[in-house]
Amino acid sequence: MTTGAARFNDIKRHIRGRILMSRRDAELLYSAVVASGHRDYLEIGTAWGGSAILAALAKQDYKMSGLVYCIDPFDGFRDGVKIDDELYPKDPSRTPIIKSTVRANAQIFGVVEYLRIIQAKSIPTPLPFPLELGCLFIDGNHSKESVMADYDAYGPMVMPGGYIMLHDIDYTGPKILLATIRGRQPESIRYVTKSMAVIQKWLL
């Protein structure tokens, strides 16, 4: 059966732009989506769409229903800093981080039908109704206030047994949230890599 590592390699090879995660983090995200079954996936922060496409491919590979929701303002900024050559030196193509790029990348991999791309800031929530999520991937603004707000707004939508993934845990916001969860329910933390933590909701 196809693996998360194989799909990571596919995306890295063909995506316009970059997939902003390590191979190990991609394996964990792919596995969490598969384990969460037919429920929806939501990510805060999408960039060129690599993580969203990975989640959609996991659903496609295992013939699972459920949609992949992406919330990103696509405003040319990351953590309040304008995206430029200094922040993204590994993308000499200068592929723009815009909604149409994500859709074009999804078309490359044949997963457009899974994606629901919402161009907006995550707070206040732009969703017209609450979702029943199997996975939540928090990778938007990395400030303490933003990460905590995303967790408080979308964490309750994750169903028992589902997964919350915090990316870039070396940044201030995700680091503080992970420390808070570790202090309250350390057994809920299933995996931690250098840059990502996977938390299982039913243990919180």
Topology of this protein?
Blueprint: H1 4-14, H2 23-35, E1 40-44, H3 50-61, E2 68-72, E3 77-78, E4 81-82, H4 99-108, E5 115-119, E6 133-138, H5 144-154, E7 158-167, H6 172-184, E8 189-192, E9 196-200
Parallel strand pairs: 1-2, 1-6, 2-5, 6-7
Antiparallel strand pairs: 3-4, 7-9, 8-9
CATH fold-level label: Rossmann fold
Under CATH, the homologous superfamily reads: Vaccinia Virus protein VP39
Shape: globular
Structural class: alpha/beta
Low-confidence stretches: none
Number of strands: 9
* Approximate helicity band: 25-40%
Q: What's the CATH architecture? A: 3-Layer(aba) Sandwich
CATH class: Alpha Beta
- How many discrete domains? 1
Q: What distinguishing features does this structure have?
A:
204 residues, alpha/beta, 7-stranded mixed beta sheet, two-stranded antiparallel sheet, 34% helix, globular
Q: Explain this structure to me?
A:
The structure is a single chain. The protein is of the alpha/beta class and 204 residues long. It has a single domain (4-203), classed as Vaccinia Virus protein VP39 (Rossmann fold). It is built from six helices and nine strands, in the order ααβαβββαββαβαββ. Helix 3 links the parallel strand 1 and strand 2 (68-72). The radius of gyration is 16 Å and the shape is globular.
